Amino acid sequence: MKTLIIENIDLKKIGELKTVSRYFCELPDIIALGEGDIPGNYGKAWQSSQTLPPNLVPSIVQLAKLENYEVILLSVSTLGTGLAGPLSAALSAPVVTEVTAIHSDMVIERPIYGGKAIIKQKIESTPVVLTIRRKYFEPEVLEGHTSSIPLNTESEKVQLISEKNEQTDGVPLEDAPVVVSGGRGIGNADNFSLLQTLADQLNGAVGASRGAVDEGWASPTRQIGQTGKIVAPSVYFAVGVSGASQHLAGIANSKCVVAINKDEEANIFNRARFGLVCDYQKIIPQLTQAIKENR
Ligand SMILES: Cc1cc2nc3c(=O)[nH]c(=O)nc-3n(C[C@H](O)[C@H](O)[C@H](O)COP(=O)(O)OP(=O)(O)OC[C@H]3O[C@@H](n4cnc5c(N)ncnc54)[C@H](O)[C@@H]3O)c2cc1C
Predict the structure, then answer these.
(1) Is the dihedral of CA 256, 257, 258, 264 positive or negative?
(2) Which residue ranges does the record assign to the Electron transfer flavoprotein alpha/beta-subunit N-terminal domain (predicted)?
């Protein structure tokens, strides 16, 4: 099937979409956004420094019609989500969002009800627009580069006035191998420093539940869950987090969940591989010290 990847120039993001494209075709085409070489091999490649969805839509639609793409692949990201709806409308194509698995015969899986259930859907018509959840597909190792044709993006419906990058110390949350998350049970903003010390020992990042964010103890950029970030670390520590379904929706693909909660009935223990029923203030310093001594 004729497949088009649309993504920023980013090895991992493009690598994941390239893996997904293998379910549909041997060699996809790509529209790569941003500056720099396009990593990997493609049938045809277009490039644009424009990254704002409203300015990209008209030219992508024109190209998609001209090239008769059957599958358009995007990541679940600001860019992908911003493009998926307008492309679907303009191309009269169904859109399937948050895809987490693909089977033969165009059957895909995606979470529903905030991650409480997984639905299998069969795609019966093309073109189709798919947004793919990050970290569910092993990124293909991209070798070499493909030369590109400039994508003609004349219309400037939206202008970027300024950009403020999120300030993160250390590893970005989404890429961290270990995430230590705090919930309302942490009690106050200062106590998050205990979690930061543990995360630092493990080369990890600190996340938060919405409970903690609503209290003003953690930045909204740290929120994990249905309305926050989706993470999939090797180890996820949920500290003073009750385990509401909206929080669990953000950690569904985490490999090992360690829950620390003083309430043995807390729902987080249903998701955890390891659970500690105790006051986190007693265990976190000890755990941090033990890791320090055993490094
Ligand atoms: C539309 C919608 C979207 C939402 N999106 C999100 C989302 O993206 N992410 C998210 O997280 N939530 C989200 N929520 C909110 C969610 O429903 C919960 O309210 C929230 O996750 C609760 O946060 P919490 O677990 O930190 O707090 P609580 O539910 O108050 O739990 C605190 C936990 O800390 C434990 N505790 C207390 N003291 C200690 C201690 N000293 N040591 C150890 N444990 C202790 C308690 O036993 C309790 O289990 C959403 C809700 C809605 C309606």
Answers:
(1) negative
(2) 53-143
Q: Do 80 and 132 belong to one domain?
A: yes
Which residues are annotated as part of the binding site for FAD?
Answer: 184, 209-210, 223-227, 240-247, 261
E strands, the chain, where? 3-8, 29-33, 38-39, 45-48, 71-75, 95-99, 101-103, 107-112, 117-122, 128-132, 145-146, 149-150, 178-182, 205-208, 235-239, 256-261, 274-277
> Measured from the CA of 208, which atom of ligand 1 is nearest?
11
Pair 55, 145 in one domain: yes
- Same domain for 197 and 90: no
Cα–Cα nearest to 29, from 62, 1, 58, 59 = 1
Distance 233 CA to ligand 1 centre (A): 20
When pLDDT is cut at 50, 70 and 90, the band that residue 168 belongs to is low
Q: Are residues 131 and 196 in the same domain?
A: no
Residue numbers of the domain that contains 269: 178-294
**pTM (2 decimals)?**
0.81
8 A C-beta contact, residue 233 and residue 255: yes
Task: Decide if pLDDT at 115 tops 90.
Answer: no
Q: Probe ligand 1: pick from 194, 210, 214, 271, max atoms within 8 Å of CB?
A: 210
* Pocket perturbation via mutation, ligand 1, pick of 116, 181, 195, 209 by most ligand atoms within 8 A of CB: 209
| Cα–ligand 1 centroid distance for 91 (angstroms) | 41
